[in-house]
Structure prediction request, 758 residues.
Amino acid sequence: MYVQKFEDLNKSDIGIAGGKGANLGELTQAGIPVPPGFVVTAETYEKFMEDSGINDKVLDILDQIDINDTKALQSAAEEIKSIIIETPIPEDMVMFIKEAYNQLCQRVGEDDTDVAIRSSATAEDLPEASFAGQQDTFLHVSGDEEVIEYIRKCWASLFEARAIFYREENNFEHSKVLIAVVVQKMAIADKAGVMFTVNPSTGEEIALIEGSWGLGEAVVSGDVTPDNYQVDKTNNEIINVTISDKKVMYTNDESGTSVKVNVPENLRMERVLSDDELIELTEMGKRVQAHYGEPMDTEWAFERDNLFLLQARPITTLDGDAPAADDDAGVEGEVLVRGLGASPGIATGNVKIVLDIDELDKIEEGDVMVTTMTTPDMVPAMRRASGIITDEGGVTCHASIISRELGIPCVVGTGDATKTLKENTGVTLDGKKGLVFEGIKKVEEEAPQATAVAAEAPILTVTEVKANVSMPEAAERAAATGADGVGLLRTEHLMLTAGIHPGKFIADGKEDELINTIAENVQIVADAFYPKPVWYRTLDAPTDEFITLEGGENEPEEHNPMLGWRGIRRELDQPEILKCEFKAIKKLHEQGYTNIGIMIPLSQSPSELIQAKALCSEVGLEPHKDVDFGMMVEIPAAALTIEDYLAIGVDFVSLGTNDLTQYTLAVDRNNEFVAKHYTEEHPAVMKLIERTIKKCAEAGVTCSICGQAGSVPHIVEKLVKFGITSVSSNADAVAEVRKTVARAEQKIILEAARKRLE
Ligand code: PEP
Ligand code: MG
Prediction:
């Protein structure tokens, strides 16, 4: 059978319809509302590949590639994908598919109705990575010709480079991995999200629901922080509602294409789901769970008043354990409060209620911290706590994330722990089941172990969060934020405070003085952060800023200094200054400050870097060997040719988005008349940023950002998704950015976990 309607499929049809298709069939058969559709079966794909004769061609190409040669792999993937996309589908197949689509149009009473087209993995036990690429969902496809075209694109996605790589690495036979394609009426959601039919970390009978405005893509992709709700399934009581600031949504533009837009101001903090809708969803969750006989992870959408499920798959729980609803971990007694188990483990201690940040000092080693919701500035006190309990929050809130990283048992979303629990009374908390018991219970080793880990473990995000420093006197404060280093040490300020133009030091034969001035100032910063890395940026001196310094009277008067004699182009014209800077860094390295790296600003071509490296070697400091040597990407030319820089060797790259934005948009960043046109979020700037990050990731080179965009949480969230490895913010934004980064990372992990469950 080339195509199968959802009505004719059930969950055992994975081999025919893939996991997604089989589950949609099962839901349809169970009478759960699912937008109607059909599946182009795995057999159709197999037959297409065989009958059109391209199977052998594809296998031949695959036979010949060395998967570790990234370029060759990439071009083989492109070649295979274009073969598939360009090969006509046999007439009889086309006929069946078009027929199924036209029947769907008739059924919904719409010509050329909009459908979503998604790939559906046929081998359940194969990891996601072995299967299709990322672009395997196409929304708003309309008309039978377009349906055919996108089915071929779905098939082609089986040969994304990373999927080929994965299969080769793990010895999966390419020809054994088949793909089915789901074609489903688009649900034009007004609101959508996900629902776990039980708490995935404890197995408790609580529906965990996340929802936001517009199509579900916003929640699933992690583009938005959704509202979070919890409903007790035993009595339909709504036990927690957390409303988030929902900044973006996916919606349809006039042509019916889905576009990401800002959520209207009045809806951002508006609650998405009413009590009635939550109960309707919970009831549907119960039906789905009862039908499958196990807890489920679902995607839902409301189109006006109509609720649909778009996806359902069993939860095997996020940590891979089966939910243990009746495992009481040995603790018994009176339960004082209940919430969500956010970080597993048993902890005991005296309750300390913190309602204000000033009260953190009362948390002593081994106390149980009870608070409304934790914030980043509570982290040092959280470290001292043996357990953490909050009124608010869900399994991905700050308290949950941090306590998991610290290994401290934690219960969140209790509603009223700060009111119910009594100061200085002993409690025992079960961070897996989300229960808090009266009294200090005897428990096995677990709690002391967790505390020991807590005392030592640093707060970690995998993406480094660093600080920008311009003034040495601000270094201590910046270091106190816990930043992972200095991602930009602006040198200009050191010179401005010295009050003498660096060119004058040279002209007066006082090179040693210049070297010492630089070294002394940089040392203050390197000390404050030692042994964390400090990237010293060589002088980027616009002529108009240096004109007022002693000796600056010789600065040329330029028509537009922003486009003028600054950055590495100027330093290569005045190599004596650059050499003094390198000598200062060398001196510090010799004193043991090997944490200092060198960063070159405003480069437009790799030859500048080659020359700068040669000057560095000339003073006896060998780039890459003695010192990390990196560059900023501030000119579109550098972003567009970053691979050429990577080829000559750089230890790290940092995006200078302040300049990158002005040079991309032709908007002088110092000119107030055009200030309203200045935005880092212009798609052209974002494309250059994304390109740079991805090319660096491919080459395994650290990519950071040190422009102002790195202090803007919602931009940082995107950068983490692009794969940035470090973010350098203004010192006062470090805490907030770290929070954003942690959340963005958690979302990626959660998303990957959900995908694995597919
Ligand atoms: C930048 O251009 O983004 C940057 C960090 O450098 P500056 O602001 O010092 O030009
Ligand atoms: Mg700059």
